[in-house]
Amino acid sequence: NAGVTQTPKFQVLKTGQSMTLQCAQDMNHEYMSWYRQDPGMGLRLIHYSVGAGITDQGEVPNGYNVSRSTTEDFPLRLLSAAPSQTSVYFCATKGLAGGEGTDTQYFGPGTRLTVL
Amino acid sequence: GQSLEQPSEVTAVEGAIVQINCTYQTSGFYGLSWYQQHDGGAPTFLSYNGLDGLEETGRFSSFLSRSDSYGYLLLQELQMKDSASYFCAVKGRTGFQKLVFGTGTRLLVSP
Question: In this structure, which of A51, A103, B22, B61 has its CB flanked by the most CB atoms within 10 Å?
Fold first, then answer.
């Protein structure tokens, strides 16, 4: 099993360009989410999904779109890149069947994005 | 809203014990998690407390006191490989599955 995969690993964009960060998982997890990590800021939730066709906003959703057409994939779209979106982006998944007793989120390796 | 506070950095020597504290303010509370992240790597899950008390997993233990809105991660028999950043994260009542992360504590273990 590959777990959680993210592509690309590195990306450089110019201001105003658009792009899609890919996230895929083979663990059949219902819950998927996107975080961004900036120095000294910890991880901040951008968008999340509790199943195919269901998405919702996190703490910092502006400038990003998501969709969830399958259980496996949860792409993150940057509509018009800005230098403030320079960050490391992590995708994470979690199975919902475990209930409240466990809370393990599995993170992908990250995408390092620079916007010039 | 939700906010978490952790020390920014902790230093210790190999073989020692270190405690990383986390205090939180949330509009609701379901549980406190801890994640480890090495430089350049992804966060990995360490521990979860849904109820008050101590959870032990090998050299790592995590404690929660819901009445004090406080938890800590205890690392025993420190090894060089434990040098990493440690994040606490809260699952609050609003947004059942959403985690809010603290800003992280950087642990430096020296020989």
Answer: B22
Q: Give A50's strand partners.
A: none
Over chain A, what HEC string results? Answer: CCCEEEECCEEEECCCCCEEEEEEECCCCCEEEEEEEECCCEEEEEEEEEECCEEEECCCCCCEEECCCCCCECCEEECCCCHHHCEEEEEEEECCCCHHHCCCCEECCCEEEEEC
Would you call B85 exposed, middle or buried from its count of C-beta atoms within 10 A (0-12, 13-18, 19+)? buried
Of B31, B45, B104, the CB nearest to A42: B104
Interface test with B, best of A57, A103, A111 (most B CBs within 10 A): A103
Residue range B29-70, pLDDT digits in tens: 778 999 999 999 999 999 999 899 999 989 999 999 999 999
Q: In the structure, what pLDDT confidence band is assigned to residue B94 with cuts at 50, 70 and 90? A: low
